[in-house]
Structures are given as structure tokens and as C-alpha cells.
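Risk register update: the risk of archive-format incompatibility is retired. Evidence:
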Amino acid sequence: MSSIRGVELPRYFTILSTVAVTALAIGATAPRAAAAAAPPPITDLGALPGDLYSYPDGLNEAGTVIGQSFSGLPNRDNTRERAVRWSPDGTITALPIPADIPHPHSTPVDINESGSITGFTSDVPGIGVYRALRWAPDGTVTELEPLPGDTQANPRGIAEDGTVAGYSQGPTGVRRAVKWAPDGTVTRLAPLPGETDSLPSLVNDNGTVVGRVSTNNRQYAVRWNRDGTVTDITAHVASPSAINGAGAVSGWGRDRHGFRLDPDGTAVDLGLDADTRAIGTDGTTVGCYYHGPHQKTAAKWAPDGTATALEHLPGDTNGWAFDINDAGTAVGRTSRFLNVSSEVGQAAKWAPDGTVTALGALPGATRSGAYHINSAGTVAGSSHTSSGEEHAVVWRP
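Archived output:
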């Protein structure tokens, strides 16, 4: 499974806010000149019949991709958003919704290595009333019920055994972190004393959950361990953004530094304005450094925290790595600004030695991004088409 778990990726090349610091001042090596390499072939995964847009939300080791198919521009009131699955041969299938759920919109959140998927339906695109679902590998769908007295539920990730973590929400809007067992039984995750709201955000294959808890007008970052205990990790990682299979967590920490917190409690300082997005099995972490208005440099941090700036593709000035596989190959995109409100990005792949390859876009298009990579080297991302729509794509070695 992709090492990114429960992380919201930028869609449609959204311009991201930045802070003005110099990345190289904190020890990252400078980007090298881009090396030429032949990209793997790109495959357009397309959209459901009659739809125009699609986007990938996950990839597992078997090469199955999950995502959404859109009838029109995403996140518009008149656009229908449907959860889909693309098999390794590229066949697209709409994930079914229980007949008693009237919601027109559905979103997949995560897929495990067995092919089980979790996601939700909503009555309004991206917001509104949520109903949690789990799809078995054969496509059978099961609704995951909220806690007694609550009215909606939203999943955030699925473990290898089929356990789903997410939250249950009541009429007052208070969220309570929960997990659903493989048989669908819902259990509240251990609260902190005085807790008023809890929200899981990351789940790994082993069922370790990371998220945030509010208590008495304060927010804490916490880890719910497999044995059900809860640990406050705010002192090291106040805003978690990635978790790996071993339970290492990374994200924003104190004084605008990025940190990685290992399962044994060791905290590794990744430097000022280090924004992490994925952690490999050995602890290698990828993401970017912010170093000026609309400027960021893709970066990789070794297990000991040593930073390396990943080179941009020719002509680009920004970069961001989104995922890394067990072989140490990272994927993401590099970009340049045409003007203050228009950014052109292209999918990139970095070999373990840092060599960059342009993955390219669909014929007649120039914009693309790579967001997930598995151990076989299959990459899932998106590309504009020659007519301007955005489609989910894969690059297979």
C-alpha cells in the first residue's frame, strides 16, 4: 500500500500557502541539474461513462487504484461525485452504495493490500451528512454504523485486517474517534480526560491510528496504539501528516520544525519549515521545504534526519514529493508559476540516488502530478487531457 495514509493531496493544482524562509540554511543540499531518463508509459484511467473528470485517491501493492469519477467540475453543487476502483488492467468500476442511502455523492478514502476499501457517502459534495462504508474485494458494500445516539460517521483509513478507523458524530457536531472491527462492531477509541472532540487522520496497516483531540479549548496530537491505549504526542508532532507501517509518525512540531517520531519514542528534527508527506519502511521521509512566497523544494530526509533537496525538472522552480516506496523511489511533481495565480506542474519520479525523471502527461497536455507509488514501481497520479479535463492515470514500469 502507498505509504501516504489519510493525507489530503492537492487537487487541480491548487496554489499552496508558504512562509518566507531559506531551505538551504537548514542543511539541505542544493538541487542538482535534472538528468534525462526515459519515462514509463502513461495510461489514461478515464472516468465512468458520461463523466468528464476523475482523480486517484489510493493505490495498493496489487496495482488497484481507487478514486472518484466526476460528472462535471469537481466540488460543484451540480456535479455528481462517485467512488470508483480501477483494477490492475485499468477496468473502471463504480463502487456501489446501499439502496437505503439516498446520498448521490461517494468518496473512497483508503484501500488495503487485500483490496478492501473504505469510504463514505455525502448529501453535498465533500460536506454535509456522512455515512461510512466498507467495500469487500468482491465489491460487496457494508454500512459502518455510528455510535448509539450519533447520526453520521466518517472513515479515515483501513488496516490490513479490515479494521476501519474514523469518527462518529452526533447532532451537536461533536466528533468521537472510533474504530469498526472487521465484523462492523463500532467502538470508541480511548478518550483523553476532559475530551470534547476527537478526530483520527492517519491509519497504518497494523491499525495504529493518529489524530487530534480537543480538551478544554486545547488541541493535542495523539496516537491510539493497537492495544487501545492513547498517547499524547504533541510535544514532538503537533500536526501529524504521515505514518508508516511500523508506526513512525511525522508532521509539524515545535517552532515551525518538521519532526519524525519513531515507535520507540525517538524524535528526529527534520528542520525549519519541513513539510512531510510520506515515510518509507526504513524511516526515510519525503515532502518539501518552504522557502519563500509560492516557493517550495522537494526534499528527502534520511532515517537520521539528514536532508537532501530533490532536483526540479528543467525550467521548474518548485517541487513536492508525495510518496516513497520500499525501494526508496519517490514521486511527486515539480512546477513553475506562469503568474501569481497560475501554476503549471508536471509529474516527477526520483530514484534512490536522487536522479529525477519527468513522467510526462497525456498526449496533447502538459500538466500532471504523481501521488502514489507501490513496491513494483507502479505510480498513480493525474494528468490533464488534450481537451483540458483532469483524469486519473498510472505509469507502469
